[in-house]
């Protein structure tokens, strides 16, 4: 079967764009964290790249995107025929629709899907900033990717049960964002609150980092959404435009909420609103018209702006608002398809309620986030608890006070002595403490 070189080239480009999103996330999260834990926060994203890449090659692709030959078991988990990506190099993936001519090497499709798995795992880390052991986090990434992400990807994008029912998720509203948001909520409960939260105001330490991070995320997201068509056609262009439209509107909606509620619009608000829009349009990008993408962005920006405050009311310390942005935003996007889907194109999918599709698709769009959210939360809580009672998931209180960057990584993002004219200093020795007042002065 002849390979479509244009579609293949675009998908390789989209793969690189999506991979760039994880370093972008590192800057976004790193800027939102406190100065004494920014390196640890960024390391959690880069650590996810390491562990998930290895797992994907060993068995992740096989679990998510092969058929295990058993009609019942295949509803929940793929097979193991492609362990180690055996034989994948010679395979060609056909287009989603019969009329599509985009035939791409399966290895390119696999690389594209790998980048989705990486950032999904990395997203969870924002919920437990400032207090997680790096080794425990790396252990969690292995277990959660294996037991949750790979099977859920099979359910929705492989030949699993949600796919067969006809759930719509163009680029990962449920597989990525609801999945990660629910896991983040579970880990926030397992690890408990940060020392001093919520009485102590734990502001972002570097807002330019936050804006740099969201810029990289926004740029990479065009690969995330438009690449998910796996072709170069009208739907690719639709997903590209909808990504831009929803993101801009959501950023505007968030800062409008801030202006009316708090009296001022903030850089953190515009960054958070942009991410909320990106999250919400992800499941809908190729299924809705641009005017509908504007509605999705408007709703997501406003709803998420209020949702991030739920942690104070409900008493869980979601450090960097993973729940309020990704779980809530992903749910908003998934549900929107039950009303606004205009271009369903896979078997079992229907138009939304506003396009005469009735309640069928709306019911599926409620089912997807509910099932995936509950499964991810339960599994993340169990995995987190097992890690916590065996090797311990949370750093010691003294290490948390001193700062994880120094106590875990023997590094500091900023040389405070040089900044204050104190002269050059050598790198801290592992296990030694920096005076708390000195480290927390800018935290």
UniProtKB/TrEMBL annotation:
Gene Ontology molecular function, alphabetical: ammonium channel activity
Top-rank taxon: Bacteria
Membrane topology note: Multi-pass membrane protein
One Gene Ontology cellular component annotation held by this UniProt entry: plasma membrane
Transmembrane segments: 6-29, 41-59, 107-129, 136-158, 170-192, 204-224, 236-257, 264-285, 291-310, 322-346, 366-384
InterPro entries for the chain: Ammonium/urea_transptr, Ammonium_transpt, Ammonium_transpt_CS, NH4_transpt_AmtB-like_dom, RhesusRHD
Keywords: Ammonia transport, Cell membrane, Membrane, Transmembrane, Transmembrane helix, Transport
Short name of any one Pfam family annotated for the protein: Ammonium_transp
Domain Ammonium transporter AmtB-like, first and last residues per copy: 9-414
Subcellular location: Cell membrane
Subunit structure: Homotrimer.
Family (UniProt): Belongs to the ammonia transporter channel (TC 1.A.11.2) family.
Functional summary from the UniProt entry: Involved in the uptake of ammonium/ammonia (NH(4)(+)/NH(3)).
NCBIfam families: amt
Protein name: Ammonium transporter
Highest classification ranks of the organism: Bacteria, Bacillati, Actinomycetota, Actinomycetes, Streptosporangiales
């Amino acid at each position: 079967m002849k390979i479509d070189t244009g579609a293949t080239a675009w998908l390789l480009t989209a793969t690189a764009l999506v991979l760039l999103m994880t370093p972008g996330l590192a800057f976004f999260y790193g800027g939102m964290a406190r100065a004494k834990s920014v390196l640890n926060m960024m390391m959690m994203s880069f650590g996810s790249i390491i562990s998930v890449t290895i797992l994907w090659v060993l068995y992740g692709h096989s679990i998510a995107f092969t058929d295990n030959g058993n009609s019942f078991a295949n509803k929940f988990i793929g097979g193991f025929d492609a362990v180690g990506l055996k034989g994948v190099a010679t395979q060609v993936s056909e287009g989603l629709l019969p009329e599509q001519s985009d035939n791409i090497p399966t290895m390119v499709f696999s690389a594209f899907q790998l980048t989705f798995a990486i950032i999904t795992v990395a997203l969870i880390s924002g919920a437990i900033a400032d207090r997680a052991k790096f080794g425990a986090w790396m252990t969690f990434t292995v277990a959660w990717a294996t037991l949750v992400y790979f099977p859920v990807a099979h359910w929705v994008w492989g030949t699993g049960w949600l796919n067969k029912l006809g759930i719509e998720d163009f680029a990962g509203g449920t597989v990525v964002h609801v999945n990660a948001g629910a896991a983040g909520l579970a880990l926030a409960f397992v690890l408990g609150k940060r020392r001093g939260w919520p009485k102590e105001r734990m502001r972002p330490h570097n807002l330019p980092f936050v804006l740099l991070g969201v810029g990289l995320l926004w740029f990479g997201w065009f690969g995330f959404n438009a690449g998910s068509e796996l072709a170069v056609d009208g739907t690719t262009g639709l997903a590209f435009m909808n990504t831009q439209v929803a993101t801009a509107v959501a950023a505007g909606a968030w800062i409008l909420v801030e202006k009316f509620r708090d009296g001022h619009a903030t850089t953190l608000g515009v960054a958070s609103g942009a991410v909320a829009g990106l999250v919400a349009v992800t499941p809908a990008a190729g299924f809705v018209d641009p005017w509908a993408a504007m509605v999705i962005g408007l709703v997501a920006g406003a709803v998420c702006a209020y949702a991030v405050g739920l942690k104070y009311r409900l008493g869980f310390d979601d450090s960097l608002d993973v729940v309020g942005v990704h779980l809530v935003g992903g749910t908003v996007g998934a549900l929107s398809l039950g009303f606004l889907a205009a271009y369903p194109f896979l078997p079992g999918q229907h138009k939304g309620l506003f396009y005469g599709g009735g309640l069928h698709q709306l019911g599926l769009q409620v089912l997807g986030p509910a099932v995936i959210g509950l499964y991810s939360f339960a599994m993340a809580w169990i995995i987190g608890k097992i890690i916590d009672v065996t090797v311990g998931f949370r750093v010691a209180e003294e290490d948390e006070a001193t700062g994880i960057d120094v106590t875990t990584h023997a590094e500091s993002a900023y040389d405070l002595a040089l900044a204050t004219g104190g002269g050059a200093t050598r790198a801290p020795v592992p296990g030694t403490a920096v005076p708390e007042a000195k480290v927390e002065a800018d935290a």
